[in-house]
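Let's practice the habit of predicting before peeking. Look at the sequence and jot down your guess about where helices and strands might fall. Then scroll down.
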Amino acid sequence: MTPILNLHNIDVAEFLAVLDTCEGNVFLVTNEGDRLNLKSKLCQLVGLTKLIEGGKIAEASVYCENVRDESKLFRFNCFGDTACAEVG
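Done guessing? Here is the structure:
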């Protein structure tokens, strides 16, 4: 798998809302090699808690199994597009 985006300084609540709309597995891979399936709420808590530094996400990469999910997350990362998600 090739990373579709690198996470830097994103809104966590909006990111989780977009993740909830994803159809396939979405993996967060840290620089240390940790690989967490973000479709799991437990992995979201463990992974994002570990990565949050001062209210912002430290560097990590995201990999998707589903092409449509890649598109959603890419639009979110580049444009802040959360149109497909219920935020807040």
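How did you do? The CA atoms of residues 28 and 38 lie 7 Å apart.
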